[in-house]
């Protein structure tokens, strides 16, 4: 343990780059519920999942027991391009807030995808390559995941087909262009290229798409094109596993300086960043070795944890995917169009859902104008323009730090800064122009959505 | 000197962050020519420059003798937000090229301004604050400098007025928006707000502006508004001084691993990045302690070094600034509108101009389509989407590495990767769509521009 002053940025050396991912499921008493076959309602095993996912990724998806899973050397080499990622002591923000709290953030935005998504993209592309596939398909909303997967595929020489939610495709031409730099094909979704796309277009001719719909298209193409599989950037157990590198690095860096966080905060859409950040800390908590407060932050306009149902639901709109037990708003739920802050998926990772259900984690929902206020305050003193998604965590970190200011407590607050907002300037512009509003779904809207949850044995 | 394997990224510790800037003028036998008063043709001293520039910055501008100038602690603290910047060993690029050359690049893009410009922005803002000024004015073209200055001013609580070349203002609304996040006011130039702006608008009603014109406006506002001074992001001696932190860090990192570069390459617009990168190395060369090949890379569409005149010229279109002795294309020269690669200033830093004139440095001009080819090749293996400006250096680094492949020489190549291209996707899109063309000014165009160089005693 070092006794020197904690630097602004703690960089681990390449030698300290983790050699294993941390599988928090190994520590969970109640394991996350298995994926179910939507037709039979039966749990899906290795063979059932092979048409959709890469073999090794299915093994990781189903492995609830192995706590430490080795990271292949080739993936570690790729990680070295942009990792270990810095753990930043937010001295400037602390000073600005006048808080006795100590604030740390793990910054995942120092790579061209602009977010943590690259951590899982390279792993998934690597296993696809190992299986000698030609390529992979996926969906992307705001574009971080699609960009990350394009980068990983370009590096490994794999084909990459991205179905991009149509409204993002049109509003974010630059994201699309970055994916093209990396050689990916990008198709606005819903598209007339797939059966499910044609069906959705026929039913809703003017639709601007949704993540759930883009997933359906990507899955259809993967399962009908020889040599292709489908990959997903969040929600799944495997993705949280890969993202655990965020938490393992963070814990290694904090341990070096003898720092123990009191509160760990992350934004939550599908849960990949939060799940990755908390993994090794939650492991300690589950084993009774240490205690932490974990806070998931979600948008008030898409409040899966705080207002959703803990139930089996479809992962996609087209209902072609396995059923997952999540906190869900219903697979047809689409957040209001004026919601600019990302995190718009209707469900939440089964791992996090179970942990939340078991009372091991808290969740709060925040409104987007408050999120952008925090984003701007942060940018001006910490010098990083944060992604709207990440700014949800900033909002709550600032709120907790201000609470410490009132009480005089010197708490240590850690949050995940998942990425940068360089491709989100339209949202920042709305915020500055005062045209950004907050939208919260009504109870009636949610009830209507819940009414369409699938019938599953044992689920009322 | 470490004997371990050279990592992908060499990060110095915060302790190793340089404590002094390196003033290469102290090593130059022939000093850069002084700034001249455009009215009298006489060299301008401290008192002459005070209406325009901050006091301490003028001292730095005129100091040709002090080799090491201390960096104030407050500036070092700000630097710690994003520095030391990584020196990257381009293992992946080397492998892709199949070259025996060893390639290193100093990456300055890991901050929200997206470039090295922040190194001088914080220094200039700091001295303005020290002088108890209310604010500063400046111009920006592509927007990196304006963003950097906005960030520095937000941090210090200074007002920041940016005159942005009109075509960039319109084509890059997101850059403008980032500046607004940092609280700057951004005005498209030429504007009706200034005398010089009104004059230019009257003469050329449809003009989309130029850097030289935006400089004139910013200077006018600074000199007519109490409590304001003008700051500039390139060309000046003081800016190269601040940017020397790039070179000092790079040299420290290379020395640690016992690596000596054979070739040092940088893109050159006004010269701030190249001048900063080479400073301590050039110092060694000037003192006869070591030899290096230095290569300045400029766009073929704005070829100040390779086709310009070494002469006194105006720094701005409105002719309100001091005259500087530069390699210049004439202060009225405007590169073709289809030039997308940045680096569009008509002149070149007096320090670099003198070094080039004295045969201490080489220069090459490259065409933009070749630059974007190199950019894309680099992005796909090194994972960083480079700025078009930086990609000029990548082009020549790749060319030199391929030459090594032919000859079998294991040269060590170092280049400056000044920034990221996230706000340049329109240019990338043109490149992909095949609509990007190369434009080279004709000799007649240049001769016409040279004919308007100012009459200065001793200059034909």
UniProtKB/TrEMBL annotation, chains A, B:
It is an enzyme of class 4 (lyase). Keywords: Amino-acid biosynthesis, Aromatic amino acid biosynthesis, Lyase, Pyridoxal phosphate, Tryptophan biosynthesis. Pathway: Amino-acid biosynthesis; L-tryptophan biosynthesis; L-tryptophan from chorismate: step 5/5. Residues 82-419 form the Tryptophan synthase beta chain-like PALP domain. InterPro entries: Trp_synth_b-like, Trp_synth_beta/beta-like, TrpB-like_PALP, TrpB-like_PALP_sf. It comes from the Bacteria. This is tryptophan synthase.
